[in-house]
């Protein structure tokens, strides 16, 4: 199973559906989130760009893991 199957997952931050095209999942705890939600709560490094094709460096709001997703 890859990053996402055909299913959607609830965003850890806002609770709305997250799809592969608008969010990511933490490799440590498997929490799902929208890139914009991470930006809104301040969990994205300032130099990161929130473009769907780019990976962003972010801190998971669920477990605190920092990585690029």
Automatic annotation (TrEMBL):
InterPro entries xref list: Znf_RING, Znf_RING/FYVE/PHD
Stretches assigned to the RING-type domain: 11-63
PROSITE patterns found in the cross-reference section: ZF_RING_2
Lineage top rank: taxon: Archaea
Signal peptide positions on this chain: none
The protein's name: RING-type domain-containing protein
Species for this entry: Halolamina pelagica
Taxonomic lineage: Archaea, Methanobacteriati, Methanobacteriota, Stenosarchaea group, Halobacteria
